[in-house]
Write a structure and sequence with these properties.
10-stranded mixed beta sheet, 17% strand
Length: 418
């Protein structure tokens, strides 16, 4: 057996997001610079300050899950299973044939927040006997992973990551490491979130983290723009099929891209605010590049964390300058959250999907609503319009409350590994 490190490739993609309920429609709208953000319809937002969100639209869980089972799942778990089914179908992976060697890592920052809201209301208004017996299993943040395994039939490693807004990227990185060490031949990896409810809006609104540009929802998410006033909360899920290269080759799978680097760091700074020096975030990027054996000159595109918070965007700009040096001014960087909003623990997974499509399609998606750049955010943020480009290497950044920093690096698949 070769002692060469196991290579890990992406063979399938699935997504449920504010732009669409499949990869093709979501990617098409993203490249077109369309916004998935609108006034909240899921509940009456009159009592909250931020009344805009990236809601999933037209989603019917019965398209993916038996109705009785779906009723016993929070929306975030439904989204996870739907995205996982898409990804497995896209990969042409026969999970049942190798169930014990295929696993899942599905991240979520908040888990079943709507279930928590509904059951707390039942408890306070009608007492403990009104609480559903499914409360716990609908609410806890590992159940997205559990339901993906249950409904797709994986019996290998199973894990849930809950590192806030870095969780989706961390889940993909952990799945990458699981395959590299030989504990699985394939993993379903990503994140899911459903925070568009009064509890979610109230929680982040109380922190003054959310945009209150309620009169112009499509313009509310403004990463790196001088007029940004906070992030726009969003929901959905994305799952990637990661596969050991030799396994993928043996079954004749179509390889979309290769995952080559995973870097993490801790800011040890604040529970919510970023370290504005950018140094800890830069360390995550540098670690991912080191594992990939690449330099900043090799990177053709960066999908930024870019949430449109005043401090966060400045910190990330500084981090990119530290990590990339002179190259920072040349590499295209965009925030797709300008169109999807911020789906918290699902963000890194959605953005990984977009990085893979940037590689396969040769297109860098834009940052919309960037009409008056913040002078401190002075890199090439691809304002307004997508850009045709040869993307051989793409980096995706995800930074979470508590100081969790994650960077992933994807590359175009090279059969020879060169």
């Amino acid at each position: 057996m070769s002692d060469a490190p196991r290579r890990v490739v992406v063979t399938g993609l699935g997504i449920i997001c504010p732009l669409g309920n499949d990869v093709e429609s979501s990617w098409r709208r993203l490249v077109a610079g369309e916004s998935g953000i609108a006034t909240i319809t899921r509940f009456d937002p009159a009592r909250v300050d931020s009344r805009v969100a990236g809601e999933v639209k037209g989603f019917d869980p019965a398209d993916f899950i038996e109705r009785r089972a779906a009723r016993r799942m929070d929306a975030y778990s439904q989204y996870a299973v739907a995205a996982a089914r898409q990804a497995v179908d896209d990969a042409g992976l026969d999970v049942a044939a190798e169930a014990e060697d295929i696993g899942a890592v599905v991240a979520s920052g908040g888990g079943g927040l709507k279930t928590f809201e509904d059951q707390q209301r039942a408890l306070f208004e009608r007492g403990p006997r009104a609480v559903s017996p499914f409360f716990a299993t609908m609410m806890i943040p590992n159940m997205g992973a559990a339901h993906v395994s249950l409904h797709l039939g994986t019996k290998g490693p199973l894990q849930a990551v809950t590192t806030a807004c870095a969780a989706g990227a961390g889940g993909i990185g952990d799945a990458f490491e699981i395959i590299k060490r030989g504990a699985a031949v394939a993993m379903l990896a990503g994140g899911a979130e459903a925070p568009v409810n009064e509890t979610g809006l109230a929680a982040f609104g109380a922190m003054r983290a959310l945009s209150t540009r309620n009169d112009a929802p499509e313009e509310a998410s403004r990463p790196f723009d001088a007029g940004r006033d906070g992030f726009v909360i969003a929901e959905g899920a994305a799952i990637l099929v990661l596969e050991e290269l030799e396994h993928a080759r043996a079954r004749g799978a179509r390889v979309l891209a290769e995952i080559v680097g995973y870097g993490m760091s801790s800011e040890a700074f604040h529970v919510a605010l970023p370290d504005e020096s950018g140094v800890p975030q830069a360390r995550a990027m540098q670690a991912a590049l080191r594992e990939a054996g690449l330099s900043p000159d090799d990177v053709d595109y960066v999908n930024a964390h870019g949430t449109a918070t005043p401090a966060g965007d400045i910190a990330e700009t500084r981090a990119l300058k530290i990590a990339f040096g002179a190259r920072a001014a040349q590499v295209p960087v965009s925030s797709t959250k300008s169109m999807t909003g911020h789906p918290l623990g699902a963000a890194g997974a959605m953005e990984a999907v977009f990085c893979v499509r940037a590689i396969t399609d040769g297109v860098v998606p834009p940052t919309i609503n960037l009409t008056d750049p913040d002078p401190e955010c002075d890199l090439d943020f691809v304002p307004g319009v997508a850009r045709a480009a040869s993307v051989r290497v793409a980096m995706s950044n995800s930074f979470g409350f508590g100081g969790h920093d994650v960077s992933l690096v994807f590359s175009r698949y090279d059969e020879d590994g060169g």
